[in-house]
Amino acid sequence: MPRICYVLDLRNEPELIAEYDRYHMPGNVWPAIIADIRAQGYDDMEIWRSGDRLVMIAEVGGDFPHAARSGDAAAVVDRWETLMSTFQQPVPHSPAGTKWLAMDRIFMLSEH
User: Fold this and answer.
1) What confidence score (pLDDT) does residue 103 get?
2) Predicted structure pTM score
3) What is the 3-state secondary structure (H, E, C) of the chain?
């Protein structure tokens, strides 16, 4: 199963970071967002945080990503993304307009 990793920063404000963490606790992510993540082809996803740096590790199906969102699903995702943007900022070397920046794997133990 392919694995992809992304990086993103949070605004370095302790209150915002704590609130962002609360939004991501079990039961707090909107059900429509969880459904959309799965519908997009993510089989599993984790977000790890160190200070204000986030790393997303995702396992995806071979046909990832799935079709574009539309209708109600797109509207809910847009609202969630707008809300999350109040906490997030791109990493310094992100291209303009990039939120979660894809990372390049440079080492894999099983290859050695």
Assistant:
1) 96
2) 0.89
3) CCEEEEEEEECCCHHHHHHHHHHCCCCCCCHHHHHHHHHCCEEEEEEEEECCEEEEEEEECCCCCCCCCCHHHHHHHHHHHHHHHCCEECCCCCCCCCCCEECCCCCCHHHC
